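User: I'm curious whether this sequence folds into something compact or stays loose and floppy. Could you predict its structure so I can see for myself?
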Amino acid sequence: MGKFHESETTAFCLEARFLDFVIKDGYKLKGLILATPEGECYVKLAKHLRVAFDWHLPRGTWLQVVGEKKYDRKTGEVKLKAERILAARIDTVTQRQDAEKDVENFSVYSPKETKPKAVKSTILVCQKSDCMKRGGKEVCQAIQAAMSDRGLEDQVTIKGTGCMKNCKAGPNVVMPDKTRYSGIKPTQVPTLMDKHFAAKHQDSEMTIAIAKSTNI
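Assistant: Here's the prediction. I'll summarize afterward.
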């Protein structure tokens, strides 16, 4: 007899709300957190989707996700990998929204998720091999550290991109105001962050100072 297969792979198609991105190393898009009637789930993105995915996708957007589902019989673990993502059909979304109104204390969607969130500024960093070899990874880490030091994690996000067509001058970085920098070194990052986010940094420090003075 042949060896019993410990895993089973099938196709899946689901409609769910987008909740958040799953990021690795501070800038690499790996997958999405989605909300379904059964609860929250993680869906890994196929490589071609990671490169082209829209980072400005509003939270709460209904999506139709098609891909591959892998079930591990030994552990009972289910892994989802998306191969195609589309906007959910309007009539289907309407039906689901009507159903949600009839369900009290629905556990998946908390009130805070329905509040509009401020749009983050985005720093683009080329993640192709040439830029990575020239210090792109270290630059991303330096940007992440500078954001943390300045309290900008809720206001700024890092997005890895495809080739910016300037490989020999890497690493290549584009700031939110479209200013492009090439040959960036990690030691230069704090200066760039202060240049482009000085106002936000000062606002953050002022808020902290006011909170301390009023004992909040």
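Summary: The CA atoms of residues 152 and 201 lie 7 Å apart. Residues 102-116, 203-216 have pLDDT under 50 and may be disordered.
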